[in-house]
Design a protein that fits this description.
single chain; Serine Threonine Protein Phosphatase 5, Tetratricopeptide repeat; 2 domains
Length: about 240
């Protein structure tokens, strides 16, 4: 069949422009300009794209939507990357993102499914175990949460997310009040301005019966994170305010 004059050149130009838009979207994503990156990526026309380029586009769209907390949109693209199996590292990253979204949207069993798939494939990381621990905690599987946090600390004994999470679970569930307090103290020592860690330390003191220290640390937590509901609730409980 004879080619229509100019068709091939037009297709090549369109493909080149689409690749340029994809590259610009990736650049903006790297600069943490999520909204601008998303706008650029949504202009990409995929005619002439290879399967790898289509997955690359889906990958960055999924990440942008995740950063912008548009989780339903993010799931659509992240799942495309996971099911494609084109890139092991990106599959890992997208499963982690899926697990994060499932935890945030209170679908902890789905989060555990994604994370267990990673663990069974030989992927181990502090982030994987701390996310599994948080998912277990939201389902009130406290001993399982402790096990996961301990696995995270086996990989990195100074990880503040794991220290804080372990400490909070230990004191809140009444498993080991003194050890929980020590973990919370260490997390605050490493990151003294983190409101979540200050809150956990205040709550740990409260659970250990030291009301004065509990009030001190919870008030510091409130100063650092005045809009966090859990801190407000903990402070009301400790001070007896209504």
């Amino acid at each position: 069949m004879a080619e229509v004059p100019g068709t091939k050149g037009s297709k090549n130009k369109a493909s080149s422009e689409s690749r340029a838009s994809l590259d610009e979207g990736i650049r903006l994503y790297g600069l943490k300009r999520w909204e601008l990156a998303l706008v650029e990526l949504l202009t990409v026309r995929t005619e002439g794209f290879s399967p790898e380029e289509n997955i690359e586009l889906a990958y960055y769209l999924g990440l942008c939507y995740t950063k912008l907390e548009r989780y339903d949109d993010a799931l659509l693209y992240l799942e495309q990357v996971v099911t494609s199996g084109h890139d092991v590292l990106r599959t890992y990253q997208c499963r982690m993102a899926l697990a994060y979204i499932y935890v945030i949207t209170k679908r902890s069993r789905l989060a555990e499914f994604e994370l267990n798939r990673l663990a069974s494939s030989g992927f181990e990381s502090v982030q994987l175990y701390t996310t599994l621990a948080y998912a277990a905690w939201t389902q009130k599987h406290f001993k399982q949460a402790v096990d996961y946090y301990e696995k995270a600390l086996d990989l990195d004994g100074s990880n503040t997310t794991a220290l804080n999470g372990l400490g909070y679970v230990l004191v809140d569930a009444g498993i080991d009040l003194f050890r929980g307090l020590r973990c919370c103290k260490k997390a605050v020592d490493l990151k003294p301005r983190n409101p979540a860690y200050l809150d956990s330390l205040g709550w740990a003191y409260f659970k250990n019966g030291d009301i004065l220290e509990a009030r001190t640390w919870l008030r510091r937590a409130m100063e650092a994170g005045p809009n966090l509901k859990e801190i407000k609730q903990h402070l009301k409980t400790v001070t007896g305010e209504k």
